[in-house]
């Protein structure tokens, strides 16, 4: 069976190249993939039986299949399944001869060469990504729209009302880029006291839109009852008296303005000259929003501007200097002509050419690729995107396609996406390096412009996929994946008719008629289930029929009634039930031998972890933020394979502190610790051995925040003895020198730890990002920060005891890097209410 699968997998890369347009190849690929899924199920069951015999059988050289075949209790069933699968593989292999596939080698063997040596990681700012802006036309468009948004009209009455302006153009033409440039314009910043940016989905949710608008307005939407009427009042109060600019990006339905946002915006800002700027593909949307005419239409790129944009993408690589690229201009202009003036297509082609050498032959191969000449292509397929997908290494293709399963309205962090890829078996390499490899895959998709970093998040932590690219990816996976929204017509029929492997479904919180769980549990072949929103669960519902699940991601809504069935999901690798009503996890969770990822963020009703969680030896990721969990069970230290741990709660029990459980966890790459004010002796901090965790890259430490609305009263409650104690504790929480990102939140000591005050104590030579929030009592900032050679981003937010930032902050007596802050890109001081100089 293994040999046959190996032979067929060698053909799969070539088959995937023809899978999109050749119907007979599509059927063959689908059948082979199902056979591969069944084979992994068999191997999983054998490994599970071997693991149940004890840890002595969980060895790299141990063959679980042989173990099962020697056991008469399992041999018959496993043997029957293998025989049946071998017959299917023989049939699949016989049919492959007629396609004349080329053997391109197995995916795993090619894994080490997946990332192009020319890819690199594009440097992006935390504001507008300037890499997509070229030509004087974009500057002219911006100036015209800024003038329209800020000018006083002849009629004072007209000026004072809320006016709507529209940017209209086809997908990929650059509407969002232009709107971002306007949003970041200095004149706009001075003119409007409130600026809101809302990305609107094709299937928008009224409650979610209002929540996001409230957050953008700087208010809190966590009301007791999040009804539409309540949220409208909160938004009105947040905007009251402000001249507001609301940018609504990618609007498909004018009802999101007329039925959701118009009333609170008008009620709050009438008479202040507020403005709305909408980007849309359709005139009818602008008409429905009563936008001022004429609408601003974005034209396709002129050839010269398109060439500048292409070159901007390619020259981003240090190996591709501008002079070399200019020698290929004539070929580049021919490639541009095929992109039809669409900036997105040009950027995608630039991402592809970035991976190639700047040789004439390489660029000519791209120009002459047969994909450009394919006719009668579905509207979902953009030729430039298709060619870029065609050029992807076979290992990257499933990662790219999987990204299109993620609901557009939700933000998924890079770590979460990589964890999904690992759980799906898409990341190939040594177990200890999978997260690093997965991030390289992620960065490669960014370098190719197939996903784009969200400007609001630091360090490319969140990315977006353009609608044109998303439509292409969803078209490719249409035969085994269903990506749907509850509001779609015929959704029930789609759920009932398709034999799907992966399901991504989004429901609307504002609607009472949720999708029934019973319509989901009929799909017994499901391996991936992504569900955002509420579902209807009956007492008879369970997870028992979804035994093939590898990935279960449920965001919000009801799940508590199903949690007891989790242990039946023997194949499950990834479990995320964030924001659900879950109150308990199964005590026998240790039986879920393959579980690698557990995300419990926002499960407020969950107050304890199962006592056996420390036996999950495969667990790599655990997130506890926002739960009711205030302690971890003894034995937690058994999770020695953990790479990412968020929301670890500090707990004291006489002479024991939960920090001791961190001591053996030396594989950690990301660590978040909360409740550090509970540690009453620095000796417990020493036992965490943070400095010995030589793979640690990101560290977040938090205390109970003492900066509130009544700072002065709260600060009086902090005793000198308590401050002295937390200072000593923090002194012993020294991180390793390899740390790249450090976040400190709620610390109320009078001074920062000694290892931050002097670069000689802990040389943080790799630190790139430093964020310090709510330093209630801290009186001075570290002088040595200016010496950090790699520091790119520094944020200090709400430090009411700091009155001055002197020249010593920039000039150090021990400066050894040649210049202060040699790589700093951005520094933010926020809410420093007592700062005098």
Automatic annotation (TrEMBL):
InterPro entries according to UniProt: Apaf_helical (IPR042197), Disease_R_plants (IPR044974), LRR_dom_sf (IPR032675), LRR_R13L4/SHOC2-like (IPR055414), NB-ARC (IPR002182), P-loop_NTPase (IPR027417), Rx_N (IPR041118), WHD_DRP (IPR058922)
Keyword tRNA processing tagged: no
- Where's the Disease resistance R13L4/SHOC-2-like LRR domain? 534-827
Q: Which organism does this sequence originate in?
A: Paspalum vaginatum
Identify the taxonomic lineage of the organism of origin: Eukaryota, Viridiplantae, Streptophyta, Embryophyta, Tracheophyta
User: By what name is this protein known?
Assistant: Uncharacterized protein
Q: What are the recorded Gene Ontology BP terms?
A: defense response to other organism
Q: What range(s) does the NB-ARC domain occupy?
A: 139-318
List residues of the Disease resistance N-terminal domain: 4-55
Q: Which GO terms describe its molecular function?
A: ADP binding
Annotated Pfam families: LRR_14 (PF23598), NB-ARC (PF00931), Rx_N (PF18052), WHD_DRP (PF23559)
Q: The Disease resistance protein winged helix domain covers which part of the protein? A: 406-473
Q: Which family does it belong to?
A: Belongs to the disease resistance NB-LRR family.
């Amino acid at each position: 069976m293994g040999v046959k699968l190996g032979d067929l997998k060698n053909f799969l890369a070539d088959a995937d190249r023809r899978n999109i347009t050749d119907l007979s190849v599509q059927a063959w690929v689908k059948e082979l993939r199902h056979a591969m899924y069944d084979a992994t199920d068999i191997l999983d069951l054998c490994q599970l039986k071997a693991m149940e015999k004890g840890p002595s059988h969980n060895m790299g050289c141990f063959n679980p299949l042989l173990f099962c075949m020697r056991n008469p209790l399992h041999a018959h069933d496993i043997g029957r399944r293998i025989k049946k699968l071998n017959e299917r593989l023989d049939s699949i292999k016989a049919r492959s001869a007629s396609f004349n596939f080329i053997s391109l080698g197995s995916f795993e063997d090619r894994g080490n060469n997946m990332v192009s040596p020319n890819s690199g990681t594009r440097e992006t700012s935390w504001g507008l990504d300037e890499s997509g802006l070229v030509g004087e036309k974009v500057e002219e468009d911006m100036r015209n729209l800024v003038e329209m948004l800020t000018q006083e009209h002849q009629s004072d009455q007209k000026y004072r009302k809320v006016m709507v302006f529209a940017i209209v153009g086809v997908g990929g033409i650059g509407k969002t880029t232009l709107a971002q440039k306007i949003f970041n314009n200095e004149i706009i910043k001075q003119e409007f006291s409130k600026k809101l940016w809302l990305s609107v989905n094709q299937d928008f949710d009224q409650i979610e839109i209002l929540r996001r608008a409230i957050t953008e307005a700087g208010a809190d939407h966590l009301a007791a009852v999040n009804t539409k009427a309540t949220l409208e009042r909160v938004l009105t109060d947040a905007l009251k008296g402000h001249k507001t600019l609301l940018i609504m990006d990618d609007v498909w339905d004018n009802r999101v303005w007329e039925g959701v946002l118009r009333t609170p915006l008008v009620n709050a800002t009438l008479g202040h000259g507020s403005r709305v700027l909408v980007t849309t593909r359709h005139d009818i949307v602008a008409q429905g929003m009563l936008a001022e005419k004429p609408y601003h239409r974005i034209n396709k790129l002129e050839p010269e501007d398109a060439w500048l944009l292409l070159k901007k993408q390619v020259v981003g690589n240090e190996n591709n200097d501008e002079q070399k690229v200019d020698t290929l201009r004539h070929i580049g202009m021919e490639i541009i002509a095929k992109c039809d003036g669409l900036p997105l297509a040009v950027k995608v082609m630039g991402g592809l050419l970035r991976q190639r050498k700047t040789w004439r032959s390489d660029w000519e191969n791209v120009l002459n690729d047969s994909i450009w000449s394919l006719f009668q292509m579905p509207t979902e397929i953009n030729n430039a995107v298709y060619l870029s997908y065609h050029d992807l290494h076979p290992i990257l293709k499933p990662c790219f396609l999987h990204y299109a399963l993620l609901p557009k309205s939700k933000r998924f962090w890079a770590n979460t996406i990589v964890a999904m890829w690992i759980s799906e078996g898409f990341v190939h390499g040594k177990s200890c390096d999978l997260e690093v490899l997965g991030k390289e895959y992620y960065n490669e998709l960014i370098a190719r412009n197939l996903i784009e970093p969200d400007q609001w998040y630091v360090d490319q932590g969140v990315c977006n996929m353009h609608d044109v690219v998303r439509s292409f990816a969803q078209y490719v996976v249409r035969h085994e994946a269903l990506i749907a929204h509850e509001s779609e017509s015929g959704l029930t029929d789609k759920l009932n008719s398709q034999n799907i492997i992966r399901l991504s479904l989004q429901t609307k919180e504002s609607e009472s008629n949720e999708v029934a769980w019973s319509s989901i549990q009929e799909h017994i072949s499901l391996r991936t289930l992504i569900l955002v929103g509420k579902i209807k669960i009956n007492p008879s519902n369970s997870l028992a029929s979804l035994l093939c699940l590898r990935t279960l991601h449920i965001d919000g809504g009801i799940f508590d009634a199903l949690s007891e069935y989790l242990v039946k999901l023997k194949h499950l690798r990834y479990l995320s039930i964030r924001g659900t009503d879950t109150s308990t996890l199964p005590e026998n969770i240790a039986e879920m031998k393959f579980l690698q990822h557990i995300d419990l963020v926002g499960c407020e009703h969950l107050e304890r972890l199962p006592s056996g969680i420390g036996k999950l030896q495969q667990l790599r990721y655990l997130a506890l933020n926002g739960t009711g969990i205030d302690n971890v069970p003894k034995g937690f230290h058994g999770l020695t394979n953990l790479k990412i741990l968020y929301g670890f709660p500090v707990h004291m029990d006489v002479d024991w502190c939960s920090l001791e459980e961190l001591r053996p966890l030396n594989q950690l790459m990301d660590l978040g610790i909360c409740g550090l004010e509970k540690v009453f002796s620095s000796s417990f901090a020493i036992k965490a051995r943070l400095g010995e965790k030589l793979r640690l890259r990101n560290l977040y430490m938090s205390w109970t925040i003492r900066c509130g609305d009544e700072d002065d009263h709260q600060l009086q409650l902090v005793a000198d003895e308590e401050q002295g104690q937390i200072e000593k504790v923090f002194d012993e929480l020294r991180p390793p020198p390899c740390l790249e990102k450090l976040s400190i939140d709620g610390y109320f000591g009078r001074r920062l730890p000694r290892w931050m005050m002097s670069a000689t104590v802990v040389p943080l030579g790799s630190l790139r990002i430093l964020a310090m929030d709510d330093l209630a009592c801290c009186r001075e900032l570290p002088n040595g920060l200016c010496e950090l050679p790699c520091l790119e981003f520094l944020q200090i937010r709400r430090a009411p005891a700091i009155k001055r930032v002197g020249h010593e902050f920039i000039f150090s007596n021990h400066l050894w890097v040649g210049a202060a802050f040699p790589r700093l890109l951005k520094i933010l001081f926020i809410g420093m209410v007592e700062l005098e100089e």
